[in-house]
Amino acid sequence: MAEADDRLLMLIDDEPAQCRLITALAAREGWRTLVARDSETAIATLGTRQGMQLGAIILDQWVPGDDACALIAELKARRPALPILMLTTSASPLLAVEAMRAGATDYLIKPVAPDRLLQALRSATTREAPAAELQPLTEKIGTTLDFDSMIGAAPAFRAALAVAAKAARTQQTVLIEGESGTGKEMLVRAMHAASPRAKAPLRIVNAGGIPANQIESVLFGHEKGAFPGAFDRHIGALQHADGGTLVIDEVDRLPLHVQERLTQFVERGDVQPIGARHSFRIDVRLFACSNAPLRDLAEAGFYHAPLVDALSTVHVHLPALRQRSGDIAALARYFLTRIGEQPGLRPLGITDSALALLKAYDWPGNVRQLQATLFRAAVFCDAETLTAQDFPNLSTMVGETPRSPAPISDGAGVMLFTADGNLRPLEEIEADVIRLAIGHYRGRMTEVARRLGIGRSTLYRKLSELGIDNAA
């Protein structure tokens, strides 16, 4: 691979605007870009002096068309160690499978966010990064939108779902926090589907993928001539979502002045595009997602505290996968079932040894990384069942003998023992059982009481005694 201070990228693309964009983005990471307009030029370039210095290839599927996978295979045959990323407008899992089997390192669906492109390049070419089976994919396996389909029995996860399910039926602003890959987007889609605005527009804006000097215009819009380069009037995402729901992902990445403007919108409900003389009211429900705890950022002086208060009418925290390792087996079997439904793949089982290996890993990329890892393993598996041998890179990182996991639940999602092997206090176990029941029955308190074999008045008394929020 080329050295970090002299990295050369070959872009196989015939669209000038996209070439300029990718060239500029890659330059942020120190890449020089060599553009090949067709597959013949690309193959010929491999044999040149510049071709021998290549550190990665980005291929737009439209250049070779139906022969994209054949070109990937040809490039891989000539340069086996060279990472190849494919850009495509297709979300077809079959194309993802074919591209990966042909040798693609990653599969990016256009329009790809700048951060996603740079992360893919970084993951593909950094020596310290997890190897191929752990690289994130952007394949879109059909997402179910109801709360009942969300897999997990860990008390913290079920409690989060209970809060979200109850809040979904209201018009309140919701802040969802959790590490990247924990399922925040899945949760907001489920909440929207269960909300009174389910048939109204749902728009998602990823603040982390938009340059800081453009995000204000993206959200609020601008008038023609409002600033240099504003050649036309632009309607912002807030106005586009009028009557529906707007999700601001990575809200922790908003610049301070945009945070202040967003606070005013949440408090007053009116929008004033950049350069406009007057504001106007709109009806938008706001969901905000953050990878970092906003309250901590505000206390450290890095975030606008009033916005944290405005967004936190309802607060949901999704736990990291390492904090609910007891759910990994159920998640793995669920993902393998869904993966097996995709064209070009088939249902696969998974052995206990493979599950033990999955549980032994920390999963910094959380549920999304687990799904991507299983997808990649399924693509290359010739047997009927995944074994630990189907995750060679994971085995290398974890070690030959998976470490003993922390004490986990008995399978029902309730911890019975403490880390030192002693039983937990009955009061704590009872509180977890009640939280689990509330989450499982999506806050239907009559059903919760009936299933627990107690009256509603007894249930509410226990909620008060144990300090359990009714929504959790």
Automatic annotation (TrEMBL):
It is found in: Cytoplasm. This is DNA-binding transcriptional regulator NtrC. It comes from Novosphingobium capsulatum. Its main location: cytoplasm. Member of the two-component regulatory system NtrB/NtrC, which controls expression of the nitrogen-regulated (ntr) genes in response to nitrogen limitation. Phosphorylated NtrC binds directly to DNA and stimulates the formation of open promoter-sigma54-RNA polymerase complexes. PROSITE patterns: RESPONSE_REGULATORY, SIGMA54_INTERACT_1, SIGMA54_INTERACT_2, SIGMA54_INTERACT_3, SIGMA54_INTERACT_4. It holds the Pfam family Response_reg. It comes from the Bacteria. Gene3D superfamilies: 1.10.8.60, 3.40.50.2300, Homeodomain-like, P-loop containing nucleotide triphosphate hydrolases. PANTHER family: DNA-BINDING TRANSCRIPTIONAL REGULATOR NTRC (PTHR32071:SF95), TRANSCRIPTIONAL REGULATORY PROTEIN (PTHR32071). Residues 8-125 form the Response regulatory domain. Residues 150-379 form the Sigma-54 factor interaction domain. InterPro entries: AAA+_ATPase, AAA_lid_NorR, CheY-like_superfamily, Homeodomain-like_sf, HTH_Fis, P-loop_NTPase, Sig_transdc_resp-reg_receiver, Sigma_54_int. The keyword Cell cycle does not apply. GO terms for molecular function: DNA binding. The lineage of its organism: Bacteria, Pseudomonadati, Pseudomonadota, Alphaproteobacteria, Sphingomonadales. The modification 4-aspartylphosphate is found at D60. Keywords: Activator, ATP-binding, Cytoplasm, DNA-binding, Nitrogen fixation, Nucleotide-binding, Phosphoprotein, Repressor, Transcription, Transcription regulation, Two-component regulatory system. CDD domains: AAA, REC.
